[in-house]
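Researcher: Let's walk through a ligand-bound prediction step by step. First, I give you the protein sequence. Second, the SMILES string for adenosine-5'-triphosphate. Third, you return the three-dimensional complex as structure tokens. Ready?
Model: Ready.
Researcher: Here are steps one and two:
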Amino acid sequence: MFQTFWRFRGAIAPHVWALAGGALLVVFVAAVEVALPWPMKVIVDDVLQPTGSSQLHETPAFLGLAGLSQLQLLLLAASALLAMTVLNAGADYLGTRLLNGVGERAMATIRAEVFTHLQRLSLAFHDKQRLGDLVTRTTTDVDYVRALMVSILSVLLPNVFILGFVITICVLIDPTFALIGLAVSPLLFVTVLFYRRRIKVASKEARSRDSDIAAAMSETFSSVRVMQTYTSEAHHEEDFRTRNDGRRDAGLKVIRLQSMFSPLVDIIATLGTVLVLWIGAQRVLDGTLTLGLLLVFLAYLKALYSPMKSLAKLTTVISRGQASAERIQEILDTAPAISDLPGARPAPRLAGAVELRSVSFGYHGDRHVLHGIDLTVEPGRVVAITGPTGAGKSSVVSLIPRLYDAAEGEVLLDGIDVRDLQVATVRRQISIVLQESILFRGTIYDNIAYGSEGVSREQVLAAAEAAHVDEFVRNLPLGYDTPVAERGVTLSGGQRQRIAIARALVRDTPIVILDEPTSGLDAISEQYVMRGLERLMAGRTVIVIAHRLSTLKRADRIYVLDKGRIVESGRHSELAAAGGLYSRLDSLQHAKDTPALTLVPAESGSLKTETSA
Ligand SMILES: Nc1ncnc2c1ncn2[C@@H]1O[C@H](COP(=O)(O)OP(=O)(O)OP(=O)(O)O)[C@@H](O)[C@H]1O
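Model: Step three, the predicted complex:
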């Protein structure tokens, strides 16, 4: 339990004074609560029943108030009660505020830490993660840890003090009687221990089911377009129902355990109370105990058991919080698979030579998807990679910006092994345009400037013009300040690609990777995008994954990939004549493209038609 504090000590440390202040205040509240039954005792024993054994009526004498009249005592006791209650309320308010404030602040720090760490973790980690699970860990789990910390300080700590104070006072007043009151404590303790463990296991299960639901939500609603088009709502509903039922059952198990726990504690506590009442009443009758002291004892018994009951309730909060803390820690403990190696140096401004030497690579251990890849691109040249689906084209290009590390062989940039260079300085010199470009929430302008720090507005606008973004932005009422919805769904595929090209142009990197950036576009959009790409490719090293003839013909060299191996390489004309895999793919492409009419947008904005080469 306390290791949770230790675990997140970095986030708590800046608030240690507020934490200490809050803790002191709640302990003060506990002390006042222990003193609260005493004015009542004075009223019962010394105001209402002032006669009897002087030994038993010693409180006013002990407090130096022996000479006061009954009325004066009543007034004093009542005022003390009121004052203590008001003081308690004030300290309670301040303490709760301080502790909860620390909780919120520390959790904001932890959330930020988790987010930053997640961003640093490599693709190999994210490939295996479900987005919903990561969201849950950053939100709900962090909140459960907050509840745990705050509860430990504002419930557990004062209750432990109350227990300590009460037991001490009871023993001081009447050790035998105190022992009777405490007789049931071991039973209570064992019950708490037993249930705590079981509730912790059940809570962890419920938490992982929560993640399941979050994952189902994110998977379903990130592909809502496909889901609705394929009318597969029923399938998603069924899947969700299964996960939801799992969560419900796990939650019900926690509730069952919890609800068994509380009444059990109640029964054991009542057993103790009955015992004290039975013996206490007899002692009051035979005059060895005052009624006021019996009332104090009973109040203390309540004060003794109610912390135990609170601890019972706290069990869930603590177990849940511990499970959540472990889930957060799992993320923070994951070391990024891709990071700067010791001695890595900043990459110099690259000329753009790219070489893969005998590279093998796999996503899962020894199951390689690339085998002995040799590939060379000279600075400023265009190299195309083609091949059937699943051949490993995307895998090859993902090794260049070191999104993954090769298992064997080397990836060299300007002759330097990428692993000897600082990752960030390499990635800053590579731009990627994917099949489907991702836009982020923000304006079109923000999306173009994304990833280029300190870039001027002129540069952004010039890139936008070169990438033919300007053509459609001009017609938008808010122009470049038009907000783009998350994932960019308010724009067409071609428009998104043009923004992505502008983004790459602003970055002005020596190396550009294009992963089929025109696939899935209609002919008109493709022409616009191609024009932007021409601007982007000029003077840079370009590695393009392509199937289209137009792109392949333009390449200085084509590598044909099949089942993770390079099976052919050369220029289009050589490969087309060689009678290998490329020529088969080429004839398929011809069959698809002929007769080919390509629409080319005229500068005026009207369309003209021209026959494809
Ligand atoms: N993130 C991943 N985790 C595990 N395996 C992967 C991952 N990405 C790709 N693979 C596997 O690696 C192999 C090569 O995939 P890759 O995406 O590189 O092929 P590709 O030629 O680009 O295919 P496509 O043309 O369909 O995009 C495939 O067998 C694929 O299943």
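Researcher: And what stands out?
Model: The chain has 24 helices and 14 strands. Residues 233-285 form the longest helix (53 residues).
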